[in-house]
Write a structure and sequence with these properties.
Oligomer: single chain
CATH class: Alpha Beta
Shape: globular
Helix content: 40-55%
Radius of gyration: 17 Å
Number of helices: 7
Distance between the termini: 9 Å
Largest sheet: 5 strands, parallel
CATH superfamily: HUPs
Number of domains: 1
């Protein structure tokens, strides 16, 4: 039995997400695992902004369109990066609350490993930490979770993969 058969990378609009995409591609290649990408357009947060009167309805629609465009851009990047390493990725965008949609995808697809990018240089308040969608998802999923923090190292690993280096992961499968 292989340690990892199915990998889900959570994609958002952060540099840390790009590092998570790179790590998940390298791991999928090394484990010969199926790779899935998920971008969640946070409709709850969008609704909360309207309720708090930060946005009027017309601004909400414009912001929603911008979120869709961001999702498409990051999913295209994930597909392009996977293609550059000859790894298949099934990448999709959904709408909802990120932690709920991540948990749902893990359960429905039978995911063994969730990969998320985390910002390591940003200090969060305890309240932010407890209520972060990524943190909630990592606590709720039943699979293993890999947090990718070192964006520069991951980029170097991704760039040198063709040169036969082992990325510091060693022989995993």
């Amino acid at each position: 039995m292989k340690l990892v058969n199915k990998i889900l990378v959570y994609i958002d609009d952060s540099d840390a997400a790009i590092a998570a995409i790179q790590a998940s591609i390298l791991l999928a290649k090394q484990f010969e695992a199926e790779l899935y990408g998920l971008y969640v357009i946070n409709t709850k947060a969008l609704g909360d902004l309207v309720k708090a009167r930060i946005f009027v309805e017309s601004e909400r629609e414009e912001y929603a369109r911008e979120l869709e465009e961001d999702a498409d851009r990051y999913l295209r990047l994930a597909r392009r990066l996977a293609d550059s390493k000859k790894v298949a990725i099934e990448a999709e965008k959904v709408q909802g609350t990120p932690h709920s949609e991540i948990r749902k995808a893990v359960e429905e697809k039978g995911i063994d490993l969730l990969v998320v990018g985390v910002e390591s240089n940003r200090t969060k308040s305890l309240r932010e930490e407890l209520h972060s969608d990524k943190d909630m998802a990592m606590k709720q999923v039943t699979c293993e979770v890999l947090c990718v923090k070192n964006e520069e190292r991951m980029e170097r690993c991704f760039e040198t993969e063709e040169e036969g280096e082992n990325h510091g992961f060693g022989k995993l499968n």
